[in-house]
Structures are given as structure tokens and as C-alpha cells.
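Running this now, will post back.
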Amino acid sequence: MGVVLSLAVALPQSSLADSATDLDARLEALRQADLRLATVAYRLDRANDALCLKHGPLSGLVLHGSMDYDQSVRPAVIRHFRFEAPIGIEGVVVDSPAAAAGVHADDSLVAIDGTPFAASAKRANAVAAIDTAGIGRPITLTLRRDGRPLTVTLNPEQGCLAHAEVDISDDLNAATDGTTIQVDSGLMNLVGDDDGALAAVVAHELSHVVLDHPHRLTAAHVSRGLFKGFGRSARLFKRTEDEADRLSVTLMANAGYDPQAAVRYWLTYGPKLNDHGGLGSTHSSWRDRADLIARAVAAIPPDAPRPIVPAWIESRTQPLR
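Update: finished.
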């Protein structure tokens, strides 16, 4: 979780000459956005492990790399986040294994299980290293903090293998490729500090992962280009979106979020999302989505033990037709 696009995408060229104080404020806002998204995703991944097809270690680390940032702001980034190695700890999810291990924001991550990172390493390299370290075993982190070496032992939890990251963009979108969930910074700004709304967004994308939609759509040979919004491709995309809406409220309930927040999300932000460009024939209207989600919320057994695993998700083993 962290920045994958250059920070310059979010900053007009004129702002690159702004004061160091202004840039520091922007970087700190970025940190808070990344940490907020990571916290919501961590909670959903952990609570819904029983529903997922792929599992991975949950650390609670919010990682970034100095090389992930545009070179025009990289010196300021290195100073602000106190990078002492190519990979840095942007934040730590509260009550996570990383927090229990004593990892701090602005620590630098030098090595995992004794294997150091190359000078050109980026966030993706560190995420992959933690994923491949495995589940159910301690991970040794070699850190640097204020110029001093430090070694800690991380005991990750198991959860859904679905990372989340902020995509620096004015767009109001969220998407997943089946492994990574991206949420546009514009959408996070729209929902503000409403974590229920953000949980609804992330739960919808995690539902695509749980239901294996990205891979099943590829296997169905849908068009993702010019003809995505026509014919069979549009019908199958719309079907997967409706299924993700339906499942998302169960994922929210499993994680202790109020599933009604997903209904409020569409009633509150639906018109804005349509005005921003619309979702066309690949999605139901925002009113229909709110109605579908409300029905799904009403169907959740109030006293059912968590996690709830709806029987209908077994349809994910079938090809999309």
C-alpha cells in the first residue's frame, strides 16, 4: 500500500516550486490517505479470509519506495519520510503485527529474512518479498531508525491476498486486477473521512477478488477496449458488478462495518459519480445499485456467526456465460 504513480501527477507543475512547508503538508496528506486505505483493507482482508481463494500474510506495514516518486520531488520525499534505504515504512496499521513488532512510521526497511533490497528497489519489490515469505511463520525485518540498525520479528496474520493502494488521480474510480485494489485519490477526497463509504468501495473491489471476476472475465474473452460497453461483454461486466455489490455488504458485516453504509454511499455519492462520467452499460444505475444493496443487507442473518460465507459464491467456480 502506497504510491505507485509519481507524486507529480497530483501536483500542478507550478506547485513544484511551492515552499517546503506546503510540499511537506501534501506529503503528510498522502501518508494519511495511504494509511487510511491500508487500515480499511487490512480489516476486510483479515475478516474475510475464509471466503478468499488466495491467502497471504497480513503485516500491517504501509510501504513505499523513494524510487516510486517522480525525480522532481524525490529529494523532498527522502527528507520528509526520512528514507535511509530504498524502501521506507510510510505507516503502520494500528493493532497489526507490524505494530506489535515495534515497527514505526519512517523506519527504513533494509532487508527481509536477511535478503537486502537493491538500490533500485520499489514498493512492489518489498510487497512481493513479504508475500513470498509465507504464511504462518515469523518474518525477520532489518530496519534503520535514526541512523541505527534494528532487527525485529514480525508474526503476520493470514488474510485475503489482496493489496490496496492509492492511485493519485482526480478520477472517481476504484478497480482491481484480482490481486491489487486501486482507489483513486479523487474518490477518497470525495468521501472524506467517511470510513463506512471507503469500506463500501474496498469491499466491492474485494468482492471481485473473492468471486474471481477478473480471471473469469478474461477466460470468457470479454472485450476490455472499445467494445466493452456492447453486447455480451457489457452483459457480463454488468453481471459481475451486480454480484460484487451483493457480496460487498457481507464482507463489510464480517469486518464489523455497518453494511447500511454501502446503501448510503450510493444514495449520497451516486449522482456525483454518474455526473463525473457515468458507468454506462457495464453497471447498473446508482439507484438500482442502492436498491440491490439494500436487499442484500436485509438478507444478512443478524445473529449469524462470523464470518458469513454465502453459499451462492460457489458460482465462482463456473465460467461466465
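The radius of gyration is 20 Å. More later if anyone needs it.
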